[in-house]
Amino acid sequence: MTLLIRNGRIVTATDDYVADVLCEGETIAAIGRNLTAPGGTEVIDATGKLVMPGFIDPHVHIYLPFMGTYAKDDYGTASRAALVGGTTTLIEMCCPSRSEDPLEAFELWKSKAEGLSACDFTFHMGVTRFDDDTPPKLRQIVEAGVASFKVFLAYQGFFGVDDTELYKTLRLAKELGVIVTAHCENETLVAQLQQKLLAEGKTGPEWHEPSRPQEVEAEGVHHLMTFAELTGAHVYIVHTSCDGAVQAALDARRRGVHVAIETVIPYLVLDGTYAQQPDFEGAKYVMSPPIRSADQQPLLWNHLASRDIATVATDHAPFDFQQQKEMGRDNFTLIPNGIPTIEHRATLLYTHGVATGRISLNTFVDSVSTQAAKLFGLFPRKGTIAVGSDADLVIYDPDYRGTISAATHQMATDYSAFEGWEQIGRPEWVTVRGEVAVRDGAFVGELGSGQFLKREPTHF
């Protein structure tokens, strides 16, 4: 297929100019003014629109057995929702329990995406146990094209690793050139605080945040930084929710630690009062680390504007309010953690970041696309608009106005955390490797067309 996008305002992490983009087959063939194309070329007039590289969500959960249930989306609903939101590549957390074989888990997670996803996809391989059998299996997974690991300093007895396992994982990652993504809390402190609150009869969702306060997250980051400094491993802190955690990472960066920082869109637009809503409505907003007090939001926005925070992801973990979130009605520790956001990450960031002047368009592109590509071995194939790059493109209409609602979203969940919120702009057209997947804001792609992206380690 040949596609010509005319007169769009091309925005990358560093550039902003008006030009045409010619896509031939799966890649970008030419960029310039007044380009010509052969007969039969589909031509899109992007006058007045923004043309950006396809967005990359570096932190999603789609297939997820967790807290006695399973995440609601599959790759059919999730990739459709992602594409409508402009996301063309997903990086999923492959999260086996401590009792599962990592090779078998990797093949299982991969099988859930192949033949169903309309997005391109890859994985962070969860390391939830480290024994004598682990290194050769992780080496095989890296050879298969996975260049990042995931560790949890939380979820004691299920996902969490101890300090010996953490050290060995980081040391192996350094040897292999693999970056380690990390959920930073302190599982012992969380477990003790949960027990204390429940013993006091504090069982509602409003007590989730006090059981995992900011100090616990900041301590988890500091703990990881010590291990990263001593091993030389490159690390990436997922879903950073508060200034204390960011500062712990920045302090380490100034000491020479190789650390990148992610936040997720709920922390930028929601505050702790949402989890305090009565009649168990607050359960819709339970995620870990928790949504923080409103005073943290401007601090996170400032860190994003300065690009100290590299990426804005989702930590998409979709569970229904009915039946699933309600599992924890009498005990907040049993509420499945997560907020479904894969569809609305970019529009929320544009609405509350770009349109308000908090961040620039270039920083927007950097945080939703380019940095993820660079950190996780996909650049310049993904994450930019350049000749030879994959023709993953988003034509964004900044004049569109709409309302978010569970009645119209593509995700499988029975609620939206942003019900009734106004949005400014939307991805009007989206292409994946030159094929139109979204036209006039509606999904028109082909389920199963997404490819597994093999990546080479780059963090030696």
UniProtKB/TrEMBL annotation:
Its cofactor is Zn(2+). The modification N6-carboxylysine is found at residue 150. InterPro entries: Amidohydro-rel, Hydantoinase/dihydroPyrase, Metal-dep_hydrolase_composite, Metal_Hydrolase, Metallo-dep_Hydrolases_sf. GO terms for cellular component: cytosol. It holds the Pfam family Amidohydro_1. The keyword Protein transport does not apply. Keywords: Hydrolase, Metal-binding. Carbamylation allows a single lysine to coordinate two divalent metal cations. Belongs to the metallo-dependent hydrolases superfamily. Hydantoinase/dihydropyrimidinase family. This is D-hydantoinase. It comes from Pirellulimonas nuda.
